[in-house]
Amino acid sequence: MKRVFLLLGVALFSISAFSTDKNTKALIITDMGKITVELYNETSQHRDNFIKLVRENKYDSIMFHRVIKQFMIQAGEKYAPTDSVNKAAYAEPDYKIPAEIVFPQYFHKRGQLCAARQGDDVNPERASSATQFYIVTGKHFTDHELDKMEKEKNVSLTPEQREAYKIEGGSPHLDGAYTVFGQVIKGMNVVHKIELVGTDTSDRPLKEVRIKTIKILKK
């Protein structure tokens, strides 16, 4: 299996069965607590795919397989239940989600829910993994650091972005390159606890932290 900060697939997925006027919310129940996320309607293909996988219980018992302090926590590498006997019954889907990069409206400030993907060298379209997602933790930036980044990347941050990266923190170097499709609205303390777990040299937690299940919340 290819490891990806931001992973795999082939094919296209698009449905509109879950389209709503209000943003859908989901409850991620983990070994370390509960995280509530809101899915953006502007990234409808990512929203619909996430809802579909949740309703099929595809995220039940998977672990946060990649955790990097002051950066992000990532899950969805494979549909692997705790019971290794049943592992063979689970497999990642072989499609990708077309990029839905709504920038600068949605950017990589702390707490954003984003789609992982393969790198630009093999995925120039920046299509997202069908299953993998990450939640941004990031770090706080100074004006000097943001000025330097703008110059090096030849970009201009909006006043909102600059303020968010200084006060809330985030990972601005990912802006415009990955799809941001939701945000944490409750439970960032749980995200922070997961962020602080010990990891090996591959950023894999030494002690497994699993998603027990995810539930779509009624409106």
Describe this protein's structure:
By secondary structure, this protein is of the alpha+beta class. The chain is globular, with a radius of gyration of 17 Å. Helix content is 18%, strand content 22%.
Key attributes of the depicted protein:
eight-stranded antiparallel β-sheet; 4 helices
Summarize the structure.
With 219 residues, this protein is α+β, with helices and mostly antiparallel strands. The protein has four helices and ten strands; from the N terminus they run ββαββββββααβαβ. β1 (24-30) and β2 (33-39) form a beta hairpin.
Main pleated-sheet profile? 8 strands, antiparallel
C-alpha geometry? globular
The strands making up the biggest β-sheet line up spatially as 3-4-8-6-9-2-1-10
In total, the number of strands is 10
Helices, by number, come to 4
Estimated structural class: alpha+beta
Give the averaged pLDDT, no decimals.
87
- Sketch the topology as an H/E string, one letter per element: EEHEEEEEEHHEHE
Spatial separation of the terminal alpha carbons: 37 Å
Strand content: 15-25%
Cα Rg: 17 Å
How much helicity do the residues have? Answer: 10-25%
Low-confidence stretches: 5-20, 80-90
